[in-house]
């Protein structure tokens, strides 16, 4: 891959696959990152069958050390990640008192720490090379301004990812063309969103694709839905 390369976590289906396909259609090489090898390989093969530059890398974002191992594996093939889309996520049920310990831990490790460690593994290289785009797929359920609705583990994990988005944006040196933003894709027809959701995966992917391909004068450190700012 000699063109700009995007890595999308949880990209073997649904919203992640729609984002990966959209980036490929915009001329990027794409890395399908997923914990399920068979499904990940199938998704990458599907995109290659459509004529796109795509490869699969096994990446369980909740596993300690997985992000740095993924970065090292890609670097061994001469692949540098220019665009990181942190899409992988889970949404177990439960409120702040009744959610199981296991669900709390798994949700924070996947939705929050998994994305943060992925940023730590790839963003320093973006800064060194002078270009990068980080897109954190969060949710209106993680917005204090919109009431922190939804299941407690999911809501808290997405609020935490929103906070990390702000802190990462603050950590980018002035004048370096690396941008970090978050988005709420809306209610999308995926395995998580369900069949009654309002948006198709392609419609839900639109703001992520916009943020992943921002020009140098685009926004940095913001939270968006339908390409418009929304409350943290």
Overall description:
The chain has 232 residues and is α/β, with parallel strands linked by helices. The protein has one domain (5-229): 3-Layer(aba) Sandwich (Rossmann fold), CATH 3.40.50.720. Helices cover 42% and strands 17% of the residues. It contains six helices and eight strands, in the order E-H-E-H-E-H-E-H-E-H-E-H-E-E. The chain has helices at residues 14-25, 37-49, 66-76, 101-129, 152-171, 201-212, and strands at residues 5-9, 29-34, 54-58, 83-86, 131-137, 177-183, 223-225, 228-229. It has an eight-stranded mixed β-sheet with strand order 3-2-1-4-5-6-7-8, sandwiched between helices. Helix 3 runs parallel beside helix 4 (101-129) and helix 4 (101-129) packs parallel to helix 5. The mean pLDDT is 96.
Largest sheet: 8 strands, mixed
Q: Would you identify the CATH architecture?
A: 3-Layer(aba) Sandwich
Query: What's the Cα radius of gyration?
Result: 16 Å
Question: Regarding CATH, which class?
Answer: Alpha Beta
Number of strands: 8
Strand % is 15-25%
Strand-helix topology:
Blueprint lengths: L4 E5 L4 H12 L3 E6 L2 H13 L4 E5 L7 H11 L6 E4 L14 H29 L1 E7 L14 H20 L5 E7 L17 H12 L10 E3 L2 E2 L3
Parallel strand pairs: 1-2, 1-4, 2-3, 4-5, 5-6, 6-7
Antiparallel strand pairs: 7-8
Helix pairs in contact: 1-6, 3-4, 4-5
């Amino acid at each position: 891959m000699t063109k700009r390369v995007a890595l999308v976590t949880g990209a073997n289906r649904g919203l992640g696959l729609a984002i990966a396909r959209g980036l490929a259609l915009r001329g990027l090489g794409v890395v399908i990152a997923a914990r399920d090898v068979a499904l990940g390989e199938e998704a990458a093969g599907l995109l290659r069958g459509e004529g796109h530059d795509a490869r699969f890398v096994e990446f369980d974002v909740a596993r300690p050390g997985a992000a740095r191992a993924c970065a090292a594996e890609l670097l061994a093939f001469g692949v540098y990640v220019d665009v990181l889309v942190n899409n992988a996520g889970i949404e177990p049920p439960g409120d702040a008192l009744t959610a199981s310990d296991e669900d709390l831990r798994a949700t924070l490790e996947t939705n929050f720490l998994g994305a943060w460690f992925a940023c730590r593994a790839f963003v320093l290289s973006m800064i060194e090379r002078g270009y990068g785009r980080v897109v954190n797929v969060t949710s209106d359920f993680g917005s204090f301004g919109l009431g922190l609705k939804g299941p407690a583990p999911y809501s808290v994990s997405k609020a935490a990812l929103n906070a990390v988005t702000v802190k990462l944006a603050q950590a980018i040196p002035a004048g370096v063309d690396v941008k970090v933003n978050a988005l709420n894709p809306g209610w999308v027809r995926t395995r998580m969103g369900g069949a009654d959701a309002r948006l198709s995966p392609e419609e839900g992917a639109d703001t992520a694709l916009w943020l992943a391909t921002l020009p140098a004068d685009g926004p940095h450190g913001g939270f968006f839905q339908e390409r418009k700012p929304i409350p943290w």
